[in-house]
Amino acid sequence: MYYDCRYVSPCEAIWRSLGFEIQYRSVPVERLSFHLPNEQNVYFDDFDPIDEVVRRETVKQSMFLAWFKANQVYLEARELTYDEMPMKFVWKQATREWVPRKKGFAIGRVFYVPPGCGEQFYLRCLLNVVCGPTCFEDLMKVDGVQYKSFRDACYALGLLDDDKEYIDAIDEASFWATAYALRRFFVAFLIADCLSRPEEVWDKCWTYLSDDILYRQRLMFNHPELILSEDEIKNYTLFEIEKLLRSCGKSLEDYEGMPTPNAQFLFTNRNRLVYDELRYDRVSLLEEHKKLLHSLNDEQFNVYKTVLKAIDSSEGGVFFVYGYGGTGKTFVWKTLSAAIRSKGEIVLNVASSGIASLLLPGGRTAHSRFKIPINQNEDSTCNIKQGSALAELIVKCKLIIWDEAPMVHKHCFEALDRTLRDILRFTNPMSLDFPFGGKTVVFGGDFRQILPVIPKGTRQDIVNATINSSYLWRYVRVLRLTKNVRLLHGDFSQAPEDLISFIKWIADIGDGIIGGDNDGCFDIEIPDDLLIKGYDDPIASIVQSIYPEFASNVDDPSYLEKRAILAPALDVVDAINDYMLRMNGDELRTYLSSDSPCKSDANVDFLIDLHTPEFLNGIRASGVPNHKLHLKVGTPVMLIRNIDHSMGLCNGTRMVITRLGNHVLEAKVLTGISAGEKVLIPRMTLTPSDVRLPFKFQRRQYALIVSYAMTINKSQGQSLSNVGLFLQKPVFSHGQLYVALSRVTERVGLKILIRDQDDKDTNVTKNVVYKEVFQNL
User: Fold this and answer.
1) In contact, 576 and 565? CB cutoff 8 Å
2) What would the DSSP string read from start to end of 391-428?
3) Whose CA is closest to 580, among 558, 547, 557, 603?
4) DSSP of 646-681, one letter per residue?
5) What is the per-residue pLDDT for 358?
6) CB under 8 Å to 323, separation ≥6 — which residues?
7) DSSP labels for 416-460?
8) Residue 531's closest CA among 209, 762, 355?
């Protein structure tokens, strides 16, 4: 038995249920054929003479070739890619031509071909990005260079990923960068796991990386006539690379196939991690400790004395230093570090974010120091093997300081707890019964700030993910800092009483006091002196407030360094950044990513056939840049990945673009320990950790975002003098408004523009505070 049925999908069902019109509702889809040169389909009957068939005009009038002709005739067509053509033009089958559309629109879909089809696949990739070509040669021309194949053109556009790109990047950078910078560039490739065959890249590029080795050795030995063999130069170069890798906790031995320097150059019998932590100058640290100790206030001294007592008693302990920005938490960390290191002992300073880790002496991110997995669960452990160099370092350390702890999920702390108990049980069997194996651990942070990000999580999910919801919290002793030391030592333009009032206002917003006795999401009024009013274009108005005289300062890094516009939503941030890029009169360059399903996926072949390149290009996920990255010289950007912590190149580091290459970018660092230094930025293979994606894909792109404007979440940890808060959409999570307002150092540097639901300016906005997170502090 058969039934003649029609399947009604959920979206169509709800459309019918709500009573909307159901006739003429289908969206027309135009299937777009394409072909290689002289390989178009030719139709003929069995008995047609072949020479007559070839001479027919229709042979040269395929849909694809007609697109070339339309681009020659219509200016509007030259601004469209092939798949965008049906939106503005109609394919007339009878006359075999594209003509301008008079009404309606259609969606274009280019016929799919798998990667195994070679040039056809590469041609299809080009059709999704190249606008208005008039012939096949135009498709193969990139930046004025005519390539011989579609594959070469795809490679030039950055649509393909292989190690040749990194060889070309080093070759390109060698014309302006020093050999030392190139070695750091190569180390960045290794640390980011970008290279599939690192030994091949080394073989082709070692001459660039070693360009200064002979000069350095002649200088070192004071021997101007010193001659080194090729093998000796390679060996010295590998040794320099090894030193850079070890400063980041890596080694050439970690990369299969890479040569290593001779053993005589290395401290093979020494734990490099322990050695690095014991290299501090104890005499200078002792002097620094005396100065810092003398400057502590009573609250800070109480924290200092309590922690040192726990260390000296060998009983251990877990502490949480709770205080808002300006109460001197970082000052306490520096004092404790100096006290312990001046005695020749080890303290491990870590932070939840790269930016926060740069403020700590010898700081690292917690994830990199303790090998915490990116995606954790309630049973996770750190990837630290018993008996390894890192395990030995942990056994010997006296204190662990973890700053900005409320930012990350409680599973991170629980993973470290399980790992430390396991490692330390071999030195002390009783360690299994103590939190963190009996080590003294000090956490710090401010629960008013943004809590762990839980994709599509409820209020209960977010609160339950915080550290004070962990089983470890019952062991924690909370130590408070309430006195703002910035007021005592800062040099501010406004009166102290005004600054005190401003800081209290921000703290009250963070505590949820302003706006009445509310909990959760509630309305608050913003003072008039902070508001931007009376404007026609809100984006232009807030840009003018934060970036006055932008045209004359566009190339001045000091002008850009301490300014930013903040917004809760990414689409608003993108709109502001696009507006600012248009204001910059320099030449715009667009860098395209190469996207593919993760090759480690068991179903990679199926996923490659299922997901077309343009589908992957359209994915916007947290933690990875967009497919198209628009940049100009002088554009401020922010790193969204850790590249080289020893150089201060961490997630959140702000830079300004100084050179746009084909395969490499040069930028000047604006913040952190390397402020003012020029660095080389490579394309990196990035895999988003977004759990909402049903599959894993990887994107090779520069790990940068334009940062004239940034999301509030991304601004956490930044300190700015001029902040514009654009609330076209209100904040939506705990602590966002508090974080945005507390980025600015003075009231005079803060401007706020608020739009209501009717897109009119207002002085009322939402604040979100989950007060239950403060209950057990």
Assistant:
1) yes
2) HHHHHHEEEEEEESGGGS-HHHHHHHHHHHHHHHTTT-
3) 547
4) GGTB-TT-EEEEEEE-SS-EEEEE-SSTTTT-EEEE
5) 87
6) 329, 444, 446, 480, 481, 482
7) HHHHHHHHHTTT-GGGGGSGGGG-EEEEEE-TTS-----TT--HH
8) 762
Given CA atoms 403, 406, 411, 417 in this order, what sign does their dihedral have? positive
Kindly report, as residue ranges, where domains of CATH 3.40.50.300 are found in the chain.
Answer: 282-487
Q: Are strands 397-403 and 346-351 parallel, antiparallel or unpaired?
A: parallel
Backbone angles phi, psi at 154, to 5 degrees: -60, -40
Buried b (16+ CB within 10 A) or exposed e, 114-149: eeeeeebbbbbbbbbbbebbbebeebbebeeeebee
* Vertex 769 angle, CA 768 and 772, to 5°: 145
Count the Cβ atoms, other than its own, within 10 Å of residue 286.
Answer: 14
**Cα(314)–Cα(585) distance, rounded to whole angstroms?**
63
Tell me how far apart the alpha carbons of residues 607 and 540 are, in angstroms, rounded to a whole number: 44
Write the DSSP symbol of residue 157. Answer: T
Q: Print burial letters for 403-432: b (CB count within 10 Å at least 16), e (below 16).
A: bbbbbbbbbbbbbbbbbbbbbbbeeeeebe
Q: What single letter denotes the amino acid at residue 379?
A: D
DSSP H or E segment with residue 709? strand 709-711
Separation between Cα atoms, residue 503 and residue 747, nearest integer Å:
9
Domain 282-487 grouped into CATH 3.40.50.300: yes
CA distances from 261 to 208, 252, 266, 375, 393 (A): 17, 9, 8, 35, 25
pTM, full prediction: 0.81
Q: Where are the alpha helices (DSSP H) in 252-328?
A: 272-277, 282-295, 298-312
581 contacts: CB under 8 Å, gap ≥ 6:
588, 630, 632, 635, 706, 708
Neighbours of 637 (CB within 10 A): 25
CA distance 233 to 535: 64
Which residues in 15-83 belong to E strands, given as ranges? 29-32
Instruction: Please calculate the CA angle 205-207-209 and round it to the nearest 5 degrees.
Output: 75
User: How far apart are the C-alpha atoms of 657 and 555, rounded to whole Å?
Assistant: 10
pLDDT of residue 486: 64
Task: Provide the 3-class DSSP secondary structure of residue 476.
Answer: strand
Q: So what's the pLDDT on residue 602?
A: 44
Q: Which residues of the chain have pLDDT under 70?
A: 1-3, 22-27, 57-59, 116, 263-270, 486-495, 516-518, 599-609, 690-692
Scan for tokens 């894993």, then name that residue. Answer: 696
Q: What is the pLDDT of residue 249?
A: 75
Chain centroid, CA 594 distance in Å: 17
Q: Quick check: 226 and 214 in contact, CB under 8 A?
A: yes
Residue pLDDT, tens place only, 635-658: 999 999 888 887 888 888 999 999
Annotate 21-46 with b (16+ C-beta within 10 A) or e (fewer): eeeeeeeeebebebeeeeebeeeeee
**3-state SS, residue 478:** strand
Encode burial over 213-235: b for 16+ CB neighbours within 10 A, e otherwise: beeebeeeeeeeeeeeeeeebbb
Residue 752's pLDDT is: 95
Reference 157, options 122, 201, 186, 114; nearest CA is 122
Query: 208 φ, ψ to 5°?
Result: -70, -40
The reported pLDDT for the residue numbered 517 is 66
In sequence order, which residues have a C-beta less than 8 Å from that of residue 390 and are 6 or more positions away?
A: 249, 273, 371, 384
The pLDDT, as a whole number, for residue 339 is: 95
The answer to whether the beta carbons of residues 187 and 680 sit under 8 Å apart is: no
Contact (Cβ atoms closer than 8 angstroms) between residue 763 and residue 754:
yes
Q: CB atoms < 10 A from the CB of 680, how many?
A: 23
- Distance in angstroms (rounded) separating the CA atoms of residues 739 and 97: 57
